[in-house]
Amino acid sequence: NARLRLIDLAKHYRAGELALVGVSLTIPAGQVLGLIGPSGSGKSTLIRCINRLVEPTAGQVLFNPGSGADLDLTRLGASGLRRARRRIGMIFQEYALVERLTVMENLLSGRLGYLPFWRSWLRRFPPADIALAYRLLDRVGLLEHANKRADALSGGQRQRVGIARALAQQPALLLVDEPTASLDPKTSRQIMRLIVEVCAEHQLAAIVNIHDVALARQFMMRIIGLNAGRIVYDGLPEGLTPEV
Ligand code: ADP
Ligand code: ADP
């Protein structure tokens, strides 16, 4: 029941520079994997090659959305990729919220994949989608903030919106890029705990790029260490040595 399999994934940004080299790994449904490594080791590149925000140079990205056969994301055309990306949630360091929209509007625009041009668009959503959005807001502890503008929220609240927005897509896989980089230590732990919990609740596979090794140790059941674009560690947090 592999949700995601990377086979010999490589990325060369330009001749001679290898950002990723021969990266192979398998992630089952429900597993949350923490990605660590020094700055420049290829963590962001790895995450972005999966949904092709960055085009991999070689290798395969096999994604199983849960029904049917594996899709090789590296071989999909534009429309196939768009369809596959609907099942892949992204959570970013900078939240990527639309400041002038409310929390609820941000949630639903993630589901749409484009921005609304009129204010009455919320009424056009299927009631089931709106009900799901309210359930998710409740889950991330933001129900009473549904109608606040995004720019009125704290950093931790904004990341909770980011998490709820990714979940509103009903993804099979979450890609999470430095979710706590802009947050204080206490809020960072709350956000990391929330990510791990919602993945367990929804049987989501996730790859989390964590800049903080202590956080990775505390919350991740599996850690991948990258160095110079190669996997140098794959295992339990207990086995990590200071060199990784
Ligand atoms: P971080 O790795 O902490 O996310 P960086 O400052 O390394 O931040 O990268 C910021 C942006 O610049 C990213 O979008 C990254 O892809 C891009 N970038 C990083 N290194 C290079 C480079 N050598 N040449 C061009 N763009 C780069
Ligand atoms: P990390 O996320 O671990 O900090 P990155 O994936 O951002 O690492 O970067 C890996 C390597 O690829 C670095 O050497 C970086 O300079 C290079 N790199 C990243 N983005 C770009 C880019 N857009 N163009 C050229 N080189 C890049």
From TrEMBL:
Molecular function GO labels: ATP binding
Keywords linked to the UniProt accession: ATP-binding, Cell membrane, Membrane, Nucleotide-binding, Translocase, Transport
Predominant location: membrane
Subcellular location: Cell inner membrane
Domain ABC transporter residues, every copy: 4-244
Membrane topology: Peripheral membrane protein
Annotated protein name in UniProt: Phosphate-import ATP-binding protein PhnC
Gene of this entry: phnC_1
